[in-house]
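Support reply, case 0932

Customer input (verbatim):
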Amino acid sequence: MLLLLAGASGLLGPALRDDLLADGHTVRTLVRREPSGPDEHRWDPAAGVLDPSVLDGVDVVVCLSGAGVGDRRWTASYKKTILQSRVDSVGTLATAMAGAGSSGKLVCASAVGYYGDTGDRRVDESTPPGDGFLADVCVQWERAADPARAAGITVSHLRTGLVLAKKGGLLPRLGLIVKLGIGGRLGSGRQYFPWISVTDEVAAMRFVIENDVPGAANLTAPNPVTNAEFTKTLGGLLHRPTILPVPGFAARIALGEFAGDVLTGQNAVPAALQDAGFTFTHPDLTSALESELR
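Our regenerated output:
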């Protein structure tokens, strides 16, 4: 296959690209800087600029672009960046594919934040969107692909949960504070953590790319756990106590508005993936953490 990948930096982009290349696929990469090789092509999603020739012969367009949600405090300016970086990227690709009469399909990143705070209620892809900033971002993010849908192009949305990876994302930060003996449950600890191992995340992305999984797909493990369960399991594997909780007010002081989404969660399950026949390597939290902590 020939794939066009936007968002080839960060945690997931390089892992997906390397996995595809290892299996003999060809990957063209979109970059905002000056290209440094023949497989890189410059684009400007903020201006809606993409050379249509980049789409020639492409079987699948994958968009993982977007500013980091937990990288900075949520100022008004940065909230705009979070939203626009996603909507502009998907919108530019969807419009370009529609204009070029592309016969490929579009696979776009999204997030389980789409459902808002679900409490104990279990949700799948049929559940409507929830409330809050991240839920609104996800709704607009997914709607940005409408030009491709209107042109008859198959569109898939990867509603990813909390990815457990050794070298990035949430796990190294949580692992550090647990090792220091100051990591306990966040707030009440009753909020759900819709986790997935990076191994299964990449495999699930590949599965959606290579199979017919239109619409939304939750990229989460089939057994979500609460924050308290997650913390206890991580502490046990690291042989550290996790007795002292981190109060909600302390999380809000440290994280600002983002704390509201850390102290809430989604009891999300991967119904679409499982219905399509995907098999998880790490269906339980212990095996996922053991794999990443080795």
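We compared this against your earlier run and they match. Two observations from our side: The first strand starts at residue 2 and ends at 6. The mean pLDDT is 89. Please reopen the case if you see a mismatch on your end.
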